[in-house]
Specification:
about 210 residues, 6 helices, alpha/beta, two-stranded antiparallel ribbon
Length: about 210
């Protein structure tokens, strides 16, 4: 994640602790979590990855669904520390930035990224990274704030400053058309849910 100085909610200890609680309690996140969890596939004997570990929400869902192995990575070591308190040794954590190339030691059957990809400055790079870390029949589930929310005088903002639990944060607002164009070479769409708040996509590897 870039723009560290503008996203202190992820990098300053007291703010991280506050946000870690906030994501598990506020109605906006709870609505997103209800939809996301309803789209989870059967994970028995599957190798899974959660990108972004705030709240350890989806790592815990993977645990409940009896995943074979669970990994999680986050840009913030402090977020990882808070997540480890909850999941103990049942999740393998690593410190990574979605804005840089990465390759795991083994591929995953399922990858989940909740409110993460809007922090990707180079969406093509982030999507390519995800695709190359999925198995041939793998699935990818993610959510972002609805890009259509952020217009000013009919023009979509490319970057957005907004309040996140009382803290000013900055993210990249990729147009819907750009998101679908970027995904198309790697994935086929299984489910699209979009409302006034969020965009949620469930995808499978494009084998054609």
């Amino acid at each position: 994640m870039r723009n560290n100085s503008e996203n202190k909610v992820f990098t300053e200890e007291t703010k991280v602790k506050k946000y870690f609680r906030f994501i598990q309690e506020n109605p906006y996140n709870l609505r997103e979590q209800t939809i996301m969890k309803s789209l989870f596939p059967d994970l028995a004997q599957k190798d899974c990855l959660e990108i972004g570990c705030a709240g350890a929400i989806y790592s815990r869902m993977m645990m409940e669904k009896k995943a074979n192995s669970i990994c999680s990575f986050d840009y913030s070591p402090l977020m990882i520390f808070e997540a480890q308190k909850i999941t103990k040794k049942k999740v393998n954590y690593s410190n990574r930035d979605i804005n840089t190339p990465w390759k795991a030691t083994s591929e995953f059957d399922f990858i989940c990224a909740s409110f993460v990809l809007h922090y990707s400055e180079n969406l093509e790079l982030s999507i390519k990274n995800i695709a190359k870390n999925l198995k041939r029949n793998g699935q990818f589930l993610f959510s972002i704030p609805n890009p259509q929310l952020h217009y000013q005088k009919g023009i979509q903002k490319s970057t957005v400053q907004t309040q996140l639990n009382g803290e000013l944060t900055k993210f990249f607002n990729h147009p819907l058309s750009s998101i679908f164009e970027t995904l198309a070479p790697y994935f086929k769409l299984e489910k699209c849910i979009i409302n006034e708040e969020i965009l949620i996509l469930k995808l499978a590897m494009n084998l054609s």
